[in-house]
From TrEMBL:
Descriptive protein name: RNA polymerase sigma-70 region 2 domain-containing protein
Domain RNA polymerase sigma-70 region: 12-74
TM helices/strands, residue ranges: none
Annotated segments matching region Disordered: 81-113
Xref: InterPro entries: RNA_pol_sigma70_r2, RNA_pol_sigma_r2
Organism: Asanoa siamensis
Lineage: Bacteria, Bacillati, Actinomycetota, Actinomycetes, Micromonosporales
Low complexity bias locations: 98-113
Biased composition (Basic residues): 85-95
Length: 113
């Protein structure tokens, strides 16, 4: 744990800066860096500290950033496809409707006294 804390203290600013350039969002970059820190806290006690712990944190954070960017791209593409389908469906429904016919107003009867 002390090793993780020491590496985090030395590397976190560099990792967040690199991630910010990649994702163009400081808040997201910080979240991704912290996800990598959490992964280190889970893995290093079990598997041992890697030979280059700063590089491990950076690579893990970058992989998470790339995964996030891909997921966001897929979401945008899926939303665009849904919008296209909805638009097509609406156009089809409109064209399937019978043309509305205008009818003359019903004749009114007046009482003459």
């Amino acid at each position: 744990m002390e090793t993780v804390a020491a590496v985090w203290k030395a590397e976190s600013a560099r990792i967040v800066a690199a991630l910010t350039r990649l994702v163009r969002d400081v808040g997201l970059a910080e979240d991704l860096a912290q996800d990598a820190l959490l992964a280190a806290l889970e893995e290093w006690p079990v598997k041992g500290v890697p030979a280059n712990p700063g590089g491990w944190l950076m690579l893990t954070a970058k992989h998470r950033a790339i995964d996030r960017l891909r997921r966001d791209d897929r979401l945008r593409a899926n939303l665009a496809e849904l919008a296209r389908r909805r638009s097509r469906s609406r156009r089809r429904r409109r064209s399937d409707r019978p043309a509305s016919t205008t009818t003359a107003p019903a004749s009114t009867t007046t009482c003459s006294a």
